[in-house]
Each structure stands twice: as C-alpha cells, then as structure tokens.
Amino acid sequence: LQYRFEDAGLGDAPYAEVAEASASRLAKAAADAQSGANHLAGDMVAHWQQHLCSGDLEARVARLRGLPSISSGKS
Asked: Where are the alpha helices (DSSP H) in 1-75?
C-alpha cells in the first residue's frame, strides 16, 4: 500500500500501519482456520476408519450395506 501511494506521488499511505496489522491478523486467522480444518479432517478419517474397518469382514460388509451382522447376533 505504501509503495502504491509513493509511486502515485501521494506520499505516505494513510493508516498503513492499521492495514499491515489487519493483514497480519487476517493471515493468522486464515492459518488457524486451515489448521482447524486439517485437524477436523483427520478426526473424521480416524472416526470412519474405526467405524468401517473394525471387526471381521462379514460385519464390515453388513455395516456398509446397512444390514445386521450375522456374527454379531443382532437382528
């Protein structure tokens, strides 16, 4: 911002420090949001892996199909 004002012959950019601080806060917020999204995705993967990949093969297939498992004794 400061360079653009200087190139245009306008002198110092008004509120340049405020703009820099805002840009810094915005970059930190974006990085925090990305980190949160990455953690959420990892948690979801772990949940579904545990839910879909635990137990014997017949039970996993039944879960995927939404059917009761023969070996679980549930009906």
From this structure: 2-7, 16-53, 57-65
The total domain count for the chain is 1
The answer to whether the pTM exceeds 0.85 is no
Phi and psi dihedrals of 17, rounded to 5? -65, -40
Look at residue 39 and tell me if it is in a domain.
yes
pLDDT tens for residues 6-25?
777 887 777 778 888 899 99
For residue 9, the enclosing domain spans 2-65
- How is residue 18 written in tokens? 């405020």
Q: How far apart are CA 33 and CA 35, in angstroms?
A: 5
